[in-house]
Design brief:
About 30% of the residues lie in helices and about 25% in strands. The protein has eight helices and 14 strands. The strands form three sheets. Strands 10-9-8-11-12-13-14 form a seven-stranded mixed beta sheet. Helix 1 packs across helix 8, helix 2 packs parallel to helix 3 and helix 4 runs parallel beside helix 5.
Length: about 325
């Protein structure tokens, strides 16, 4: 990936601008560093009643602007910041407005699972588009069909290569005795992509709840006896499913269990559950800011900064982004 990265300062006097809101300033700084330009100057403040106020503190007339903003916790606040920033850029005559969302909040509400439910992922797409965005760059959408919710170009990058490369470089894992595990049927495609990169077989956890308020029964489809298991998911939220899955794998004969995901939401009791689980190491990316307080030592965070910087450069240079999908 680094071979195609432009030299530092290549874009210092260009029409390329990168702005960060409050979602993940550290990641935005890293991305801007890879590209070789400083972050654009803007202020994001709140009135005493919670209203968001944004001021762009430099001219962006005729510029191609990229906004780095994951809509993670607090989701609604970060989403409003994004929408207001898009509007501000549009009114300040930006040439193009490109939204880089390392994490797309509300992505799990992508369909009607029950009567009278909203499809909030579509509503969010409509709001971003209506506000004035010209393009969206997303990372590991929970449901790939969300791409179809937009009527503007969307580039969907994947975290699997970064996670896979980490395990390929771990010398204390025997990849010949490793199996990649999907925590449910919906994640099989993702598990298959990692398994192909690691040249490992896959297994699937089949879970069901016999009746309300009764713990899930987990059956393992595939051979995991005596093997190192790597569970892969896109999002880990409260960590209930992933920790139960890890214990089920150990109970069925797995030698050790690793887990990985792109988006470490890790809300509520997640830290406590991970710390007390059978998971040897949890590997995540920095698409979402992780609080340092009480963070378990077994959590390893990888960076997606270079990948996202490459995407920005390729969009700005009007080059193919699809080479980054693999």
């Amino acid at each position: 990936m680094g071979a195609n990265m432009m030299l530092k300062n290549e874009y210092k006097n260009s029409k390329l601008k990168i702005f960060s809101l409050n979602g993940n300033p550290a990641l935005a700084e890293e991305i801007a560093g890879y590209v070789g330009i400083p972050l654009g100057k803007c202020s994001v403040k709140s009135f005493s009643d919670g209203e968001v106020q944004i001021n762009i503190e430099e001219s962006i007339r005729g510029c191609d602007v990229f906004i780095v903003q994951p809509t993670s916790n607090p989701v609604n606040e970060h989403l409003m910041e994004l929408l207001i920033m898009i509007d501000a850029l549009k009114r300040a005559s930006a040439a193009t407005i490109n939204v880089l969302m390392p994490y797309y909040g509300y992505a799990r509400q992508d369909r009607k699972a029950r009567s009278r439910e909203p499809i909030t992922a579509k509503l969010v797409a409509d709001m971003i588009e209506k506000a004035g965005a010209d393009r969206v760059i997303a990372l590991d959408l929970h449901a790939p069909q969300i791409q179809g919710f937009f009527n503007i170009p969307i580039d969907h990058l994947m975290g699997v290569p970064i996670l896979s490369d980490y395990f390929l470089g771990k010398h204390d894992i025997d990849l010949a005795e490793t199996v990649v595990v999907s925590p449910d049927h919906g994640g099989v495609t993702r598990a298959r992509k990692m398994a192909d990169r690691l040249k490992a077989p896959i297994a699937i956890i089949d879970k069901r709840r016999p009746k309300p308020n009764v713990a899930e029964v987990m059956n393992i489809v595939g051979d995991i006896n005596g093997k190192t298991a790597i569970i892969i998911d896109d999002i880990i939220d409260t960590a209930g499913t992933i920790t139960l899955a890890a214990q089920a794998l150990i109970d069925k004969g797995a030698k050790e269990v690793y887990a990985c995901c792109t988006h470490p939401v890790l809300s509520g009791p997640a830290y406590e559950r991970i710390e007390g689980s059978a998971i040897k190491e949890l590997v995540v990316t920095n698409s979402i800011v992780l609080p340092e307080a009480n963070r378990p030592a077994k959590i390893k965070q990888l960076s997606v900064g270079e990948l996202l910087a490459q995407a920005i450069i390729r969009v700005y240079e009007q080059e193919s982004v699809s080479v980054l999908f693999d």
